[in-house]
Design brief:
This protein has eleven helices and seven strands. It has one domain (41-261): Rossmann fold (3-Layer(aba) Sandwich). The protein is globular and about 45 Å long. The chain has a seven-stranded mixed beta sheet, sandwiched between helices. β1 (70-74), α4 and β2 (91-96) form a beta-alpha-beta unit. By secondary structure, the chain is of the alpha/beta class. It starts with a helix and ends in a 9-residue tail after the last strand. The chain binds S-adenosylmethionine. Residues 2, 75-77, 79, 96-97, 100, 124-127, 151-153 line the site of S-adenosylmethionine.
Length: 270
């Protein structure tokens, strides 16, 4: 479904990014699921496009302004950044559940021209394995800073699991590392939302991924996990910034994006 949206967004008249593989990965199955969600929450395509585009820009800033050379895609799913945004001297690590990762690798191996070697694949079941240990076992250098892209994952995790992972990231990674993740507001997780939004919540539950976590103020949690530089962005700001417009009817009420680091990044970070 996510790939179907990335494929559509790549066809916008003024696209925010280009994903040449998304349509093939999505196939008709992905597009069909996306259409079912469209009917329940029409802004989904725009929201997803903004999320992908903003995190893509962070990859560029991390590499160009912060001299980061390790990009970790945590809970990678069908992420294609390693293929879309290759940079000389930069190593991508895709960390995911062994089953999801095997399925992804099987799909992309069949795509003509997909650079499967662009990422190092780190199979890790977060429930029983430590992602940092698994990363190190696969060549990740803890002594060097990294950008951690944790996209579309925390809303499906219990708070204890988010805290455990965030604490490990803050304590184990180089302090100049930056973690970026999107999250929903508290009322979204509690389903205390207008009917229009409730439909999208119940739809993802039907797909097998109930929303477990939401927060209107992620700063206390990230502080308690050890981060000392914390920023929150909302998707209305991102739509003004990246698309140059704001439409009341797609008002993003419950969608946020958080950035966190142990050490304040050098000037120039947004
Ligand atoms: C909704 S998908 C997001 C995928 C991708 N980051 C994106 O934005 O399209 C959630 C991801 O979390 C991963 N995940 C869920 N539970 C996990 C676990 N116990 N261990 C490792 N990964 C897990 C899934 O395999 C999946 O790739």
């Amino acid at each position: 479904m996510v790939c179907a949206y990335r494929a559509r967004a790549s066809r916008w008249p003024t696209p925010l990014f280009n994903d040449p593989w998304a349509a093939q990965i999505a196939g008709s199955v992905g597009e069909e699921i996306a259409q079912r969600l469209d009917a329940r929450w029409p802004p989904m395509e725009t929201w997803l496009a903004l999320r992908v585009a903003y995190l893509d820009r962070l990859v560029g800033i991390a590499v160009d302004s912060l001299s980061i050379r390790q990009i970790v895609i945590l809970g990678a799913g069908y992420d294609t950044r390693a293929a879309r945004l290759p940079r000389a001297g930069v190593q991508y690590f895709e960390v995911d559940h062994p089953a999801t990762q095997a399925a992804k690798r099987e799909v992309v191996a069949k795509l003509p021209g997909y650079p499967i070697e662009a990422a190092r694949y780190v199979a890790c079941n977060f429930e029983v394995e430590d992602p940092i240990e698994r990363l190190v076992a696969n060549g990740f250098d803890k002594a060097e800073p990294a950008l951690i892209v944790w996209e579309g994952v925390v809303m499906y995790l219990p708070e204890a699991a988010i805290r455990a992972t965030a604490t490990r990231l803050a304590s184990e990674l180089h302090p100049s590392s930056v973690v970026a993740f999107d999250l929903f507001g508290k009322r979204m997780a509690m389903q205390d939302v207008p009917d229009a939004d409730k439909q999208s919540v119940s739809f993802v539950k039907e797909l097998g991924e109930p929303i477990l976590f939401g927060s209107d103020d992620i700063l206390p949690l990230l502080y308690e996990c050890g981060f000392r530089w914390i920023r929150s962005r909302d998707f209305n700001e991102l739509s003004v910034e990246l698309m140059g417009d704001y439409k009341r009817e797609r008002f993003f009420r419950f969608q946020h994006l958080a950035l966190a680091a142990v050490r304040t990044p050098v000037a120039g970070w947004p």
